[in-house]
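User: Run a structure prediction on this.
Assistant: Running it now.
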Amino acid sequence: MNFVEELRWRGMLHNIMPGTEELLDKEKVTAYVGFDPTADSLHIGHLCGIMILRHFQRHGHKPLALIGGATGMIGDPSGKSTERNLLDEDTLRHNQESIKKQLAKFLDFDSDLPNKAELVNNYDWIKDFTFLDFARTVGKHITVNYMMAKESVQKRLNGEARDGLSFTEFTYQLLQGYDFLYLYEHKNCKLQMGGSDQWGNITTGAELIRRTNGGEVFALTCPLITKADGTKFGKTEGGNVWLDPRYTSPYKFYQFWLNVSDEDAARYIKVFTSLGLEEIESLIAKHAEAPHMRLLQKRLAEEVTVMVHSRQDYETAVEASNILFGNATSEALKKLDEDTLLAVFEGVPMFEVSRDELAGGVKAVDLLVEKAAVFPSKGEMRKLVQGGGVSLNKEKLASFDQMITSADLLNGKYLIVQKGKKNYYLVIAK
């Protein structure tokens, strides 16, 4: 199976320029995908492009990951309704280093192999490019009529943008086109890949190369990934699902994949993992026999969490999930770091109590009825404790007047109260 065939069965091929597959079968090719450096982390919206580069390298070709330092200072009109904020050079360099660390989990940058990955930043070749140079080298080869015909430009001009389309953004396709020309001339890069919304920009680059030196280059794009209901993939109520654990904890990351629908899981496991065709077909068949077991979602969540974070982070996330939905022990609860603990119990009712009151010890009944209104009355709490229905930090309360002290606090700050099987409460000592 060649690279293009692999993308096809995985559902990762949208547009492909004629001759691309033949080129890839004939020789080892250098190709690039561009990444926007407006943040110091990539998010799961970038994962399809990253996986394309990963498959590309595994098929023996050479991947270039291009950080759009220069183009990121302008903003791409494709699929956008507003202009981006402009970034300074220090911020761009910081973002570039952070992104490279993330990409290194997917691509081999460090081996001695001829197809080792490289990171390039278009700011390096555009920063000293004068306006006159740009007009002579690029501008004179592409007509305004050609640029106006692009779908991304038409959408912005036809009222999708509040303020129209600035000249700066209008020139974006020429800047991206110059990237392709530069990499063709300096890195022998003959193929550009990206999301389907980039097709217009990519073909502008191919046209620029053809018009400037007669070179023949190629292009392919992957579809924009959506959910089964047609809504945008990768967004939650809290915003993007980031690859950096500072912005999206491994637990929340794992939960995102665990909670996708059956239909989405069957598509995503092809796009976002390196599992082979036979294994995936077997998983889909087993899942169909017992959908309630959520085998697809569990395997998808495992593969992506291990790839983006680590095996340890995955195991911690599974343990954390079991705290709410399984028979986890108090030991598992005590092992959670503060961020994961708060992520697990996000959305449960919270109460604040004074740390000073806990220092000398307080009866559970006083704490959970008067100071934190977990129970409406002492009588109800006594009845539930006697029936074994109340737990503190995953250990059953022996008696309703059991003494609670600051030594019981998790991370020196939290108490987890469980009433019955499913009702949790978070008590915070301040």
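The two ends are 60 Å apart (CA to CA).
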